[in-house]
Amino acid sequence: MVVDIGPDQPGSSLLVLSIHNIGTTVARDVRIQDTPTLESSHAKFTPRLASALNRTIPMLPPNRRLVYAFDGPQRWSTDLPMRYDFTVDAHGPQGAVETLTYTVDLEALAGYLIGERPLKRIEEHLGKIVSRLDALADAYDKANSEAIRAHDGRMIEETRRQAEGPTEP
Fold it and tell me: How far apart are CA 149 and CA 147, in angstroms?
């Protein structure tokens, strides 16, 4: 069992609390103690976090991950704790599992690019390519406008003839 706090996904500004059974068997009667008590800068998250941690999880299958919204980048401009210890007790197929304690230091995430899209530079380059292709298409249209109008006229005339049906000799 691993308890952690980190970005929801690359580029996300949402920090989440995750409880993950990384083992190969079912974890039962999972109990987690947090020190100090988790507190979010988002008032609505704090009671949800308390509810998630103050109860026993009856069963957590292998590779199952429970994820709870925890906080956002504004966390670093508060006086809230930045370091938490999580103590995990659980039972496996052979009985009680060794008690594990994890220390999560949110200061380690302070330099992380929370909210930065990992593909931002690629998106910017693609935007420039689109702009250049649009300019090229406009230049082509201007340079060939007469030929394009003539081609469109021929296509309209051909469609009209086909709609009228075959001509008789």
Answer: 5
CB contact at 8 A, 7 and 15:
yes
Could you give the 3-state DSSP secondary structure of residue 28? strand
Residue 157: count of CB within 10 angstroms of its CB: 10
Q: Are 97 and 91 a contacting pair, CB within 8 Å?
A: yes
Distance CA 145, CA 14 (A): 51
Residue pLDDT, tens place only, 39-73? 999 989 999 999 999 999 999 999 999 999 999 88
Q: Six-digit token pair at 88?
A: 């995990």
* Contact residues for 89 (Cβ-Cβ < 8 A; gap 6+): 29, 30, 31, 96, 97, 99
